[in-house]
Design brief:
alpha+beta
């Protein structure tokens, strides 16, 4: 008896609260048809997704964007199935029950809010996919024009973040969020970050300058200073924050771009010729005023590795009781460091009693 009363009470609650009548054979058949309709629509959507994804993978689109389109293509069959289900489920009965259902979820304009959230999720997926695809296409397109890889990466990242920013503002407009709120938050966050990471910002600004102006390229040998220490090496990478050098001793040194930007940089590979300087010290008795300088110049001009233009020069630097000192300057081709050794050997053969010292090795470090 108690169980029967509980059953009658539950039946009366659902009947009066939601407008449902006794479950009849007709309603059971309608539920079965709605389930079959949804299953057929889902199967059709997955089939269309498989075909679309397979074809889009042959294009230049990013995989993220391809998968987003694959999800979107599933919705049209489901929307059609929802209309069919509404027809099967008797729209009058559904509309009569809607006020009671809406009372369980007291949200103003629930359908519009749900639709806006769906739009926002789709825009997030599409925005990220479009941004990644644009970045890939820009890097690939600039690569065909033989533009430096650092410039290509920089331009690709700029367009990537621009597209993401436009997507965020679009989502804010759909959700009807005032732009002033995120703009004020971004402003405060920017000021705080600028104070906290001002050294990093200096490196970033200097990195932009180096990438755009290109005072040196990857593969060049440069000399620069960092806190009084001089580094000479080959440029291996130029990033936004730092430049990596492979110094002559073999180690890799990472130098912040702000230090390179604020100090003198010598590019050893910018020109085809380099000048070397030697100091020749000899006894005064061995010095012949009318012959010694000419003999040194003749030896230098006979060496093929010494460039004819500019011509080599020999200057008398000093004459003391201890001897005579000459400064010998000559030009060699870039990276032909063995020329200095050849000149030293030739001058030692000519002047066996002289002391030879390298003053400038023409970049041979």
């Amino acid at each position: 008896m108690l169980a029967q009363k509980c059953y009658n009470a539950q039946k009366e609650y659902f009947t009066q609260g939601f407008g449902f009548s006794d479950i009849s054979m007709e309603n059971t058949l309608g539920i079965i048809l709605i389930g079959l309709t949804l299953l057929v629509a889902l199967g059709l959507g997955l089939f269309l997704r498989r075909i679309l994804v397979r074809r889009l993978k042959r294009t230049v689109l990013d995989n993220w964007l391809i998968q987003t389109f694959g999800v979107v293509i599933v919705f049209p069959p489901l929307i059609v199935a929802a209309f069919v289900a509404a027809i099967i489920w008797k729209p009058i009965q559904l509309s009569a029950s809607w006020p009671n259902i809406n009372s369980l979820f007291p949200i103003a304009n629930l359908p519009a809010l749900t639709l806006n959230l769906v739009y926002a999720l789709l825009l997030i997926a599409l925005g990220v996919g479009v941004a990644r695809t644009a970045r890939t296409l820009i890097i690939r397109g600039l690569g065909e024009n033989r533009i430096d890889i650092n410039i290509r990466t920089l331009v690709g990242r700029i367009f990537y973040y621009i597209i993401l920013a436009l997507t965020v503002f679009w989502i804010l407009s759909i959700l009807q969020i005032p732009i002033a709120v995120p703009a004020a938050f971004i402003g405060i966050l920017t000021v705080a970050l600028a104070v906290a990471v001002q050294d990093i910002l200096k490196d970033l600004v200097a990195g932009f300058y180096i990438l755009i102006e290109r005072p040196f390229h990857i593969g060049d040998q440069i000399c620069t200073t960092d806190g009084g220490e001089t580094y000479t090496g080959t440029v291996e990478d130029v990033q936004l924050r730092a430049t990596k050098l492979r110094i002559v001793s073999g180690e890799e040194v990472t130098i912040p771009n702000s230090l390179i930007f604020g100090n003198a940089v010598v590019n050893n590979t910018s020109y085809n010729e380099r000048r070397a300087t030697l100091t020749v010290s000899m006894p005064e008795a061995a010095y012949l005023k009318d012959e010694t300088v000419g003999q040194i110049l003749t030896v230098l001009k006979q060496l093929e590795s010494v460039t004819a233009k500019p011509e080599p020069r020999v200057t008398l630097s000093s004459i003391t009781s201890e001897g005579v000192v000459f400064t010998v300057r000559f030009w060699i081709a870039n990276n032909q460091f063995s020329t200095v050794t050849e000149v030293m050997c030739a001058l030692h053969t000519l002047l066996p009693n002289a002391e030879l010292t390298i003053k400038d090795a023409a970049g041979d470090v």
